Amino acid sequence: MSQRQPSPAPRRRSVLRGSLAVPAALAVPALAGAAPSFALSGRPRARWGVQAGDVTAHAGLVWVRSDRPARMIVETSATESFRNARRWQGPLLGPGTDFTGTTRLRGLPAGEQIHYRVLLADPDDPRRTGEPVTGTFRTTPKGRKEGVRFLWSGDIAGQGWGINPDRGGFRVFEEMRRRDPDFFLCSGDTIYADGPILPSVTLPDGSVWRNVTTEEKSKVAESLAEFRGAFRYNLLDENVRRFNAQVPSIVQWDDHEVRNNWYPGQILDDARYTEKNVDVLAGRSLRAFSEYYPLSTLPPGDEDGRVYRVLRHGPLLDVFVLDMRSYRNANSPNRQTEDATGILGARQLAWLKRELSRSRAVWKVIASDMPLGLVVPDGRVNFEAVAQGDPGAPLGRELQIADLLRHIKHRRITGTLWLTADVHYTSAQHYDPSRAAFKDFAPFWEFVSGPLAAGGFPATKLDGTFGPEQKFIKAPARANTSPAETPQYFGEVDIDGDSGDLTVRLRQEGGGVLFTRVLRPGRVGQ
């Protein structure tokens, strides 16, 4: 297996000993969260840190937010001293994007540690620049020798459990940073736009949970400004900003970026909302989402504005990022015998089949924002995910998944595994046609991990249609247990460059490994 070991100062990320520790990069932003003032004195500042995303062999995206109008400039170098730095002229940051911006870096060397720093220049005087904010990422290698390590999880600042200064904030992000991953896959529910953060919550034992709060997070998000404030909230946490500066991300979205269990065309019956049309809310959220995360398929990078995409990480790994929210049909009893729309929509399903067939990677991770065989209800009669609890032949949204699984088998596509979050506990399921009502597929694994900073929830039931067997599960006995009562969870995937073996570890906050599974390349039914 891979011999890379995590450490507080990773050997290939020497930036931790130098430029990442610049105080300006980690200074706590003003909690007010309002739009920056046009009348601020001094030089532009990047108080919200930096982050990189959708990194490939020769390219990557770098993000920043300014405290006023500014020109974004990025410099890259092979060393943290920034000798022989290469300069990239970025966009002008202004109120149209909430003073955020992303710069695409192209022509980078493959398999190298890239050190970058972002400078913000006064638009009227380019010589006046703020203090640089630094970060680092590693481009995808062309060869497979070094291997790949990445983490995944989701569900951040949910159910009223926000940044608690008494606990050191979202400290699980610091723990993940020390694992030294090549990237982090955020499996959705990056925010809880429908979950206000109150100043304090009384726990069952009588103790008090304290939250950092902001004006935008005091109510459900409806306006564009409120959605922007919800995305900005997580960046108040020093652990998150430090993590973002070291670990590039692959981000997808799910329901809580807009509202719990939303679907296109929904009209809300919720007294908290003055805007009842969920499509209007979703449009505002997607705009803020595109402003606060560096995604290659959202504007201005892609005019279609897709969240679904494939990220290729050398010969060992392709990551297929799904969007199970934007194209789904309405939540229902989910027992229809024909369903062309399903949970992915016809166009996304065709894309996924095509890209899986083209993939030559040893491992093909399907990043799903919802689980397949776990029954996730929406009220008393409707269902939110794929499964509906009927263990028989595929019905409703299961028909689309059956079609996909059949395609994977018949095209002899090997090395697929599914990673997800959403249900606020951690588990491992093995799917096998010998146990299933639907049998025309090859066995595969699904691993669940989360939340990162939200309430814990009891386990849901399994649906037998695709023959899942739960090999591991850890979940609380009651709903919405606080992070002070139950651990937060994240998963780790380590692919060995020599053997190609893939090891999945389900981890909990505090460093404990709960479950480990080693998968061999090219084998079926393991």
TrEMBL record:
Alphabetical keyword list: Signal
Domain (Phospholipase D N-terminal): residue spans on this chain: 49-139
Signal peptide interval: 1-34
Domain PhoD-like phosphatase metallophosphatase: from-to ranges: 156-505
Keyword DNA damage part of the UniProt annotation: no
Tagged with keyword Hydrolase: no
UniProt name for this protein: Alkaline phosphatase
